[in-house]
Fold this sequence. Notes:
This protein is mostly beta strands. Helices cover 5% and strands 37% of the residues.
Amino acid sequence: MKGSCLCGAIEYEVDQLDMPISHCHCRSCRKAHAAAFASNAGVMREHFRWVKGKEKLTAFESSPGKFRHFCSVCGSNLVAERLAQPHVIVRVATLDENPGTKPTMHIWCSHDVPWLQDDKDVSFYQEWQPGR
């Protein structure tokens, strides 16, 4: 599977997702992605490779030993890693292809804030809301 950043300066490939997709609600993921949660999956290092733009990567150590790698041009958060672990954490939303699997869990929900709680009264639309 191929993946890339928003501007296309960086591309990567994964042979497979080696761990289930999870939606992480931790404060760090919310801040790093400017989103309610980040969708992640572990990929063993031997199944992951940068194919374009590695020189445009920059990293931020968001907690001791955890590095978040993102595009220095557009800011897309692509992967995270702890150097001692045998896998990287791929940001599933940056995949350009369907991984063929669905998320299995939400984690760190203890970090949720009240405005993140979906309510049964919240409307959902396929695209823009009618009349917009």
